[in-house]
Amino acid sequence: MAEKRDYYEVLGLGKSASEEEIKKAYRKLARQYHPDVNKADDAEAKFKEVKEAYDVLSDSGKRAQYDQYGHVDPNQGMGGGFSGDFGGFGDIFDMFFGGGGNRRDPNAPQRGNDLQYTMTIEFKEAVFGKETDITIPRTENCDTCNGSGAKPGTRPETCSVCHGSGQQEVVQNTPFGRMVNRRACSNCGGRGQIIREKCTTCGGNGKVKKQRKIHVRIPAGVDDGAQLRMAGEGEGGLRGGPAGDLYIIIRVKSHDFFDREGDDIYCEIPLTFAQAALGDEIEIPTLTEKVKLKIPAGTQTGTYFRLKGKGVPKLRGIGQGDQHVKVVVVTPSKLNEEQKELLRQFASLDGEFTHEHEQSFFDRMKRAFRGD
């Protein structure tokens, strides 16, 4: 079994990292390795590794015990692996040291989940930008009960068993002393509240599924794989907590004529033999217009010409990339007799031999080898 990496190393942080730094590092890496976005073979394993590291380091109690014991689970002895579940161990500390552990208030506001949406756009829409509306399904606070889950005119009651803590204590006397375990309250399911009369719209959940229309502005210059963040457009929070964010992944369709590399545009233009040999002035299509390009006499196939400033607008900056034009000399596949004769004359004047003379050339070469 492979040894687990240090959780701080997984997130790329030092041991003195703040809660905000841990959260920021997790969000960045989770987006990078999410299987829906990253199709690499090891992406899913890395995503799980990042999630496990965050689950431990984002909880102050688990983090403190990880800092002390590493991946060893104190509940299983020195040979066990770090499980991330410190219920029993934490309760023993509570008993001897007076509690005060990090217990999350079940009634505290909770941030909503982030959402992800993949949008496919045309090549030129990525270059020049676009505004559009999208519709996404998401959960939102119920308008009838304002997210409380209780019927209008009523309100949730504090659980009489756990008194709003969402936890119950189970006391056991053992040879090692009096042990206290805490678990989710069986009366309220760990919520800390009881809803006697549930909202008929959401059934007491405080949430409803809705189709949300959102206006999206795609900036000019985005490229395939770009990610746009729309703050607060994710799922609604719980108990008055803020909504999550919406992340839009951009997919750009290919173009029939243009290719793109960063902010530069590439294309190929065919030339006839005469144009390449004698030179010419031709029209080149760009992203916005047609421009004149002077072809010098004697241009070889594969030569590149640069059209400055005719590329993609820079996403984070001023100006535009360039357009690079590659010329390809096209050899005619069908010639009439007059054209063939003219080419024979050209070849003769240039000192070249044609296919018709090829046999006599090889005959002379054979005779030279024979010593004739």
Automatic annotation (TrEMBL):
CDD domains: DnaJ, DnaJ_C, DnaJ_zf. SUPFAM superfamilies: Chaperone J-domain (SSF46565), DnaJ/Hsp40 cysteine-rich domain (SSF57938), HSP40/DnaJ peptide-binding domain (SSF49493). The keyword Repeat applies. It comes from Paenibacillus apis. PROSITE patterns: DNAJ_1 (PS00636), DNAJ_2 (PS50076), ZF_CR (PS51188). Belongs to the DnaJ family. Homodimer. A zinc finger (CR-type) spans 129-211. Residues 6-70 form the J domain. Participates actively in the response to hyperosmotic and heat shock by preventing the aggregation of stress-denatured proteins and by disaggregating proteins, also in an autonomous, DnaK-independent fashion. Unfolded proteins bind initially to DnaJ; upon interaction with the DnaJ-bound protein, DnaK hydrolyzes its bound ATP, resulting in the formation of a stable complex. GrpE releases ADP from DnaK; ATP binding to DnaK triggers the release of the substrate protein, thus completing the reaction cycle. The lineage of its organism: Bacteria, Bacillati, Bacillota, Bacilli, Bacillales. The J domain is necessary and sufficient to stimulate DnaK ATPase activity. Zinc center 1 plays an important role in the autonomous, DnaK-independent chaperone activity of DnaJ. Zinc center 2 is essential for interaction with DnaK and for DnaJ activity. Zn(2+) 2 binds at residues 159, 162, 185, 188. Binds 2 Zn(2+) ions per monomer. GO terms for biological process: DNA replication; protein refolding; response to heat. This is Chaperone protein DnaJ. Its cofactor is Zn(2+). It comes from the Bacteria. It is found in: Cytoplasm. Its main location: cytoplasm.
